Amino acid sequence: MEWTVSTLVSILAALIPVAAIAYQFYSPPAVTSIDEANAEADKETEPEEEKPKTIMQAARTDLDPPKDDPFTMEQLKEFDGSNADKPIYVAIKGTVFDVSHKKETYGPGGSYNLFAGKDASKALGKSSLKEEDASSDYSSLPPNELKVLNDWHEFFAKRYNIVGRVIDLPPPASNL
Ligand code: HEM
């Protein structure tokens, strides 16, 4: 048989419907698990540069050297934001942080005013905004909540100046 242009054209024409049918039945390899699906999704949206992982304020590099001034719990109360002339302090595990530059958060009417002027370690560990949990005694916290509390301490230490420590926290009450 002679291979003319018209023969080739008719062979190609015959192949087109075959290819179209084959394509209809073709589906991409099935993703077998959610993990694989997520990995695929990640690949597609791989960011050019690392995006910030949190909406929280960034850690600071301009903090003052930590101070070790003693505060009684009574003295600490004066720094709850109710007196606009005084700084606002939050204590965590006895460390006193100056949070004055986040007045809208810790000052009067702020979402986290509950933490101002006191050591409310227990509430931070429990992720609680209840007044009854705003206590320095975190002895009842299970390990996972102790971790949360320690993470908060670290968070504050990277963002707020340490101005002292609370010297008269009551001994942790036993939860037994
Ligand atoms: C619906 C629940 C909650 C939402 C939507 C929420 C939202 C937020 C947001 C948007 C911020 C960043 C604020 C900022 O940088 O100005 C923040 C910070 C914070 N949240 Fe919450 N929060 C919630 C629950 C809680 C609870 C239960 C606690 C109790 C421990 C808590 C403690 C904190 C603290 C200590 C900060 C750090 C503020 C700072 O010093 O920058 N939050 N939260």
UniProtKB/TrEMBL annotation:
Native organism taxonomy: Eukaryota, Fungi, Dikarya, Basidiomycota, Agaricomycotina
Region feature (Disordered): 36-69
Cited Gene3D superfamilies: Cytochrome b5-like heme/steroid binding domain (3.10.120.10)
Entry GO MF terms: heme binding
Domain Cytochrome b5 heme-binding: 71-167
Family under the similarity heading: Belongs to the cytochrome b5 family. MAPR subfamily.
Species, as recorded: Cerrena zonata
Protein name, UniProt field: Cytochrome b5 heme-binding domain-containing protein
Residue spans of biased composition, Acidic residues class: 37-49
UniProt keywords, alphabetically: Signal
